[in-house]
Write a structure and sequence with these properties.
Elements (H helix, E strand, L loop, with lengths): L1 H16 L14 H7 L2 E13 L15 E13 L5 E7 L12 E9 L2 E3 L7 E2 L4 H10 L4 E2 L1
Antiparallel strand pairs: 1-2, 1-4, 2-3, 2-7, 4-5, 4-6
């Protein structure tokens, strides 16, 4: 009887905790110049809003599930590449490979396009402004600024 109770309790725990496979992000090291060339847009912008979405629901909600992603709205301060409006929406993953955009913070964004949406992640070299000094220096030296606020 004790073994049956233990088995039932173990199965219930597994079912309730909803385990998922471990996710990892492995990026090939690339230079600022390579990331610039692969990107459709390169810009510096401040996050004004973030929204959690799921492709099956298209609405914001609280619980996170597989397939979730974040859409961040950024106010563009400076752009080196791409035709950008003053506000840009960009999609990123929630986990290891996604950028943890925080409202009010400024980021250097290298964006590609997928399904007609701007997307980014850590493998694109997108980073918080505070750790972007070297990238900004290279961008300013090698590429003309297309837009400045």
């Amino acid at each position: 009887m004790r073994a049956v109770c233990f088995t039932v309790l173990a199965l219930a725990t597994i079912a309730l905790t909803n385990p998922r496979p471990v996710e990892a992000c492995s990026c090939i090291q690339i230079t600022v110049e390579q990331s610039y060339e692969k990107s459709v847009a390169v810009f510096l912008g401040r996050v004004v809003k973030t929204e959690l979405r799921n492709p099956n629901r298209q609405k914001s909600y609280i619980l996170r599930r597989a397939g979730d992603y974040v859409v961040a709205t950024l106010e563009v301060y400076k752009a080196w590449k791409g035709e950008l409006d003053s506000l840009v929406e960009i999609k990123t993953g929630l986990h290891n490979c996604g950028i943890q955009f925080a409202s009010g913070n400024t980021y250097l964004v290298y964006a590609t396009k997928s399904n007609n949406e701007l997307t980014t992640g850590v493998c694109h070299l997108t980073k918080h402004f505070v750790s972007a000094d070297q990238d900004l220096k290279i961008l300013d030296e090698k590429y003309p600024i297309r837009k400045r606020r």
